[in-house]
Amino acid sequence: MSSIEEKFLEVFGEEPDLIAAAPGRVNLIGEHIDYSEGFVLPFAIKDRTTAAIRKRDDSTVRIASVQRRNKVITVDINDVQPGLKGDWDRYALGVLWSMGVKTGVDLMIDGQVPLGAGLSSSAALECSVATAINHLFDMGFSLEELARLTQKAENQYVGVPCGIMDQSVSLMATVGSALLLDCRDLSTRNIPFDVAAHGLERLIIDTQAHHALADGGYAERRASCESVALKLGIHSMRELTIAQLEESRDSITSVEYLRARHAVSEMQRVLDCVEALSISDFEKVGRLINQSHASLRDDYTVSCPELDTAVDASLAAGALGSRMVGGGFGGSAIALIQASKTSETITAIEKAFAEKKFKAPRFFTSLPSQGAEVISR
Predict the structure, then answer these.
(1) Which of 168, 211, 212, 273 is least enclosed, having the fewest CB within 10 Å?
(2) Tell me, what DSSP letter sits at residue 115?
(3) pTM for this one?
(4) What single-letter DSSP state applies at residue 120?
(5) Does the pLDDT value for residue 163 go beyond 90?
(6) Are 137 and 337 in contact (CB under 8 A)?
(7) Kind and range of the H or E element at 245?
(8) Cβ distance 150 to 98 under 8 Å?
(9) Residues with active-site annotation
(10) Cβ pair 107, 92 in contact under 8 A
(11) What residue spans of 99-191 are helical by DSSP H?
């Protein structure tokens, strides 16, 4: 019996009917453009959230977490609607709501994706629950449909206006590849991403500067892009070129111009990165990663001192490229480095953080991993 099964039995008195898991993610490139119908290039990490679930014969929903000791949140399924107060449990309840569950369940969550690190712990939770529900109730939703439903849960129930990237890669990722995702139609293509064969390493740097996307900063930036689209008579940033943006500069505010410039240029960087990976031109991949960070820092203004310090120290230590990942305002950065310089790079970053009296960062690496799956039934 697995640890989550043991915890489920301890808390709820019975064994679960089914267990599913879904991973967090790192986005190689393509940040803050999923809600503008852009292209993104994320991959799943090995850290996963696991959901154990059991049907009930009444309308009671009980939710507990391995990380929250024996605290059980209890609610009637008929009361699960947007506006219901809650904490982390809203992510799970939102999925029950968006998927139209009408009966009670017992649900145990074991979250192993670091919180607030920009590695999409929320999507991992949502997608593990959605995968469990989809199979437990034989709903038959496709992965694309599950991505839409989990995004709906976060947008409308939790209140975070996220795009579709995090949920899509958590559900659709495959081992050994990054996922080129077209956020307009959710079509995908696996892009081989074997940096180890070239003597390289992907270092993930958790700055431990906690970020929260529900505080309005994320929503403001999405609203800016939507405002530009409305003013220019287009559906999304996907339909805008840099030349058109420059021609229309007087029709939008200075802030909107910067936000749009990031979105349009970042979409092109994703496509350029895919081309560079196809010929194993990692020097160019590194340059594109650096350009992405500069754009996020200067045009989208979603970086922070800890993220900039991690990036600058990585580059000073010889990284090919480094940038912040995730929604920003804290969280993690990645660095594409020579594997032989991993220890040297970590030491340089730790020293830079200590000199600025920042909280010590955490480091880990991950190969591109498998997306959501049922692991026990």
Answers:
(1) 212
(2) T
(3) 0.87
(4) -
(5) no
(6) no
(7) helix 242-247
(8) yes
(9) 166
(10) yes
(11) 121-136, 143-152, 165-172
